[in-house]
């Protein structure tokens, strides 16, 4: 029997890492990769494959680009055609978690291992409510990637890391998944302190998404403008205070570490929430900004900058 891995959500994250899995295993006799997609994305991948364009360091087109086209074993949104899955890697937008999972609930058995790769930190809890019998891991990624058009993903810069883990999952299953990732040339890390790792990523992306969306500026314009950077640092201090109030064992210099991460990012890039806001699409403001405000209230932490930004982003 083949190990069947479903990829739910073929945006910047799911498309990129799913593409690496498809490249590695489409001809495998042991592993089957299934892209769960519909509409124009499904049509484009069936006809032309999934194209992944890698740019070395910026959004601009140039000779430092490479691309690959991959075909998974199956592209479908029909649960009967998809069948039962051994692993499900999910990377939709956070506001689509419940609806996307319920649309393929018949593909999920009690033995299906679920790996969420979302921007927020509450995905595991939300999925466990839907599927209380399943093992739901925790995970996060560091990558700058986005949809160019249906079936086409652009990844910017050299930085790409995937972290996952669980306090309750069988170690044999965790090691199996890590081996699958490694053989697909995915830089992945199976970590014991996964909750803290996910929160370190959340601190990075929540502050960045909130700042870029509020200021309508990219990374460079935030780092190189004193007033903008002051707002960003205020956000980092506030969300870090919430994390410490929750009892998370984060590094004492987490704010400095996060700023260094941002300084190493492409300066003309921005957050996915900012891109969605500019395009007039639904945004992840509930998971990336409001969640911090709600947790701050719960733990008695003051977050005036987050509150100010939340009021503006939910008013506009």
From TrEMBL:
Keywords on this record? NADP, Oxidoreductase, Pantothenate biosynthesis
Protein family according to the UniProt entry = Belongs to the ketopantoate reductase family.
Domain Ketopantoate reductase N-terminal: residue ranges:
5-165
A GO biological process of this protein is: pantothenate biosynthetic process
Pathway per its UniProt entry is:
Cofactor biosynthesis; (R)-pantothenate biosynthesis; (R)-pantoate from 3-methyl-2-oxobutanoate: step 2/2
| GO cellular component entries | cytoplasm
What's a Gene Ontology MF term here? 2-dehydropantoate 2-reductase activity
Q: Which Pfam families match?
A: ApbA (PF02558), ApbA_C (PF08546)
Which catalytic reaction applies to this protein?
Answer: (R)-pantoate + NADP(+) = 2-dehydropantoate + NADPH + H(+)
Organism, as annotated: Flavobacterium gawalongense
Enzyme Commission identifier(s): 1.1.1.169
Q: Which residues are in the Ketopantoate reductase C-terminal domain?
A: 194-313
Function (record text): Catalyzes the NADPH-dependent reduction of ketopantoate into pantoic acid.
Q: Tell me what this protein is called.
A: 2-dehydropantoate 2-reductase
